[in-house]
Amino acid sequence: MKLAVVGATGLVGQEVLKVLEERNFPFTDLYLVASPKSVGQKISYKGKEYSIKGLEEVCNLIPDVAIFSAGGGTSLEWAPKFAEKGTIVIDNSSAWRMDPTKKLVVPEINGKEIKEENKIIANPNCSTIQMVLALAPLHARYKLKRVVVSTYQSVTGTGKDAVQQMMDERAGINGAKVYPHPIDMNALPHIDVFQDNGYTKEEMKMVNETRKILGDENIGVTSTTVRVPTIGGHSEAINAEFYTDFDLAEVKNILSNTAGVIVQDDPKNNIYPMPLYSKGKDEVFVGRLRRDESQPNTLNMWVVADNLRKGAATNAVQIAEYILEHRLVNA
Ligand code: 2RA
């Protein structure tokens, strides 16, 4: 099995390498790809040095699987070229997510949708992944009617320069500028670009991707996404209305028995999920479970996950593991 990691020097690419190492992902060859200015530089993986290569060179080496975390433009141009040669591309960008011919996969929810002919598989947006992982088992039991979500998203979701901007501001240095406003000691209700309907692209990702992954176009979803000066992960306040009523103890039990979800819900002892403690973890943490007392069949919860892990790298590696386990790759 020949594996390529495209965008190997970025925050997500670096996390992909960590996850591959931790999970002892089985490959015979590893090709690391980054922008032309990084070609020839070395990256160490499990004590071995790998030289960074260019896209064309690695495309011609025909890896069995390529995990792309290099932005939408690179994916739009190069994923089809890799796929044409027979490589399965697992793509972290938003380029292919809403393409009706492409699967949008969270393996625990809809891994079964992946078929041998799917050569480009889309990894959902980070804020969507953690939300749907918590909602999917509740949707299966009580059927979702409407979701209202507000996010508190880590600067790591923007990339290295955004982390630098926050750190520079904290140190009083006039340095990196990624956001249109200061981010430290601030909250920006602005993630990705604004659309004609007044929502940001990030907000519409949460609407459209949720419906596609859960396979139900009738679920109402509305979202406000906010960047906050945190690093460990994204947090979400989710208000979920169901068609049927639920028992809170049963909700807790369902979530506690959901693969990839950890319930941290003991408010009397100040136990609830926090981004500081989700950093480097693969699970999605759920807490503050309570009834919305303003209307029937409605649940409030607080969901936190490391956006670079389950929100990106871990989910992508899990897709690669799924296609290996189910022999959907000719390696
Ligand atoms: C963010 N959702 O946090 C993005 C990263 N894919 O900005």
Question: Describe it for me?
Answer:
It catalyses: L-aspartate 4-semialdehyde + phosphate + NADP(+) = 4-phospho-L-aspartate + NADPH + H(+). Its EC number is 1.2.1.11. Keywords: Amino-acid biosynthesis, Diaminopimelate biosynthesis, Lysine biosynthesis, Methionine biosynthesis, NADP, Oxidoreductase, Threonine biosynthesis. The active site is at residues 126, 234. The protein is 33% helix and 23% strand. It has helices spanning 11-22, 55-60, 72-85, 107-110, 126-142, 160-170, 201-214, 248-256, 275-278, 309-325; strands at residues 2-6, 29-33, 42-45, 48-53, 65-68, 88-91, 103-104, 120-122, 144-152, 220-224, 234-242, 261-263, 284-291, 298-305. The strands form two sheets. Strands 3-4-2-1-5-6-8-7 form an eight-stranded mixed beta sheet, with helices on both faces. A six-stranded mixed beta sheet has the order 10-9-11-14-13-12. The structure holds 3-amino-D-alanine (2RA). Residues 125-127, 153, 157-158, 191, 202, 307 line the site of 3-amino-D-alanine (2RA).
> What is the element string, with H for helices and E for strands?
EHEEEHEHEEHEHEHHEEHEHEEH
Task: Name every ligand kind in the structure.
Answer: 3-amino-D-alanine
CATH topology of the largest domain: Dihydrodipicolinate Reductase, domain 2
Total strands: the figure is 14
Could you report the average pLDDT, rounded to the nearest whole number?
Answer: 97
**Strand residues, percent:** 15-25%
Shape: globular
Oligomer: single chain
Rg, Å, rounded: 20 Å
- Structural class given helices, strands, pairing? alpha/beta
User: Which ranges are low-confidence, i.e. pLDDT below 50, for 5 or more consecutive residues?
Assistant: none
How far the N terminus sits from the C terminus, by CA atoms, comes to 5 Å
Indicate the CATH architecture of the largest domain.
Answer: 2-Layer Sandwich
Proportion of helical residues: 25-40%
Q: Report the top-level CATH class of the largest domain.
A: Alpha Beta
CATH superfamily of the largest domain: Dihydrodipicolinate Reductase, domain 2
Physical arrangement of strands within the biggest beta sheet: 3-4-2-1-5-6-8-7
Number of helices in the DSSP assignment? 10
Enzyme class: oxidoreductase
Subunit structure: Homodimer.
Family: Belongs to the aspartate-semialdehyde dehydrogenase family.
InterPro entries: Asp_semialdehyde_DH (IPR012080), Asp_semialdehyde_DH_beta (IPR005986), NAD(P)-bd_dom_sf (IPR036291), Semialdehyde_DH_NAD-bd (IPR000534), Semialdhyde_DH_dimer_dom (IPR012280)
